[in-house]
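Exercise: predict the structure of this protein bound to glutamine.
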Amino acid sequence: MQKVKDIRRYLDQMLNEKYPNTERRSFNLWILEYLFDFSPTDAIMNAEDLLDEKSVIKVQQMVELLAEHKPIQQIVGYSWFYGHKFSINEEVLIPRPETEELVAWMLKDQTNDKSILDIGTGSGCIPISLAKNSTASVTTLDISEGALKIAACNAKRLNVKINFILADILNLDVLNALSTYDVIVSNPPYVLDSDKELMSSNVVDYEPHLALFVPNNDALKYYSKITEIASRVLNPGGILYFEIHELKALEVKHLLKNKGFSSIEIRQDMQGKDRMIKALLNV
Ligand code: GLN
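Solution:
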């Protein structure tokens, strides 16, 4: 490995059997962005640049971790969400593009001047993006101290003010920590335990199970709890948004209806899967 362009060749050589071409191509761009702050265009323009020894060693170390299926976002320590860089680590879910679609939906509906509660902070990608792109006043809650810590760092770096609450939504006391809100949003854990076997090891071995999985026999555990909480702390006419499991849309809709919500709308993500839902609390 002597030149910038050799990194791609090295990735192909070392990871050929573990990852498809599209992923190796994406790793190359991640590595070049991380090491040299290169855009994809810079990567082409500077293909013949010579690599110093430090960079070569760094690439080798990164490729070793990739070979162990560590997600590239955890290796570089950040991910992109709604146009901004978010620090991440093993304690938070790597922000997903389908969650950007949920944020886009909310912003299009207008969140200016609204009070919003986000349940399940993680990296802070949802609440921070809402605060960054509107004049909403945003509160976010998580059970994980580690998650709140990293989300607070992200909020500070991205220069937004957010109110953080450390609490377990499964515990009834949570209501004491809350105020009233115009909008509630959540991307709670919804992947079934039984899906673990089908998932790639970069997710199952490295991402926090606390943020991902639910028991097969209680798949809507967080949805029913959050809907209950929302029916108590949403202002009249308030809106609840969820990211959902693609096979559970109708069940979540039913749950919302039973708890006093109406005007329920299900939307698909870019892959055409039922991925998000919106509901109004009846006045
Ligand atoms: N969409 C995530 C995934 O597919 C899951 C997010 C969640 O459980 N809330 O891994």
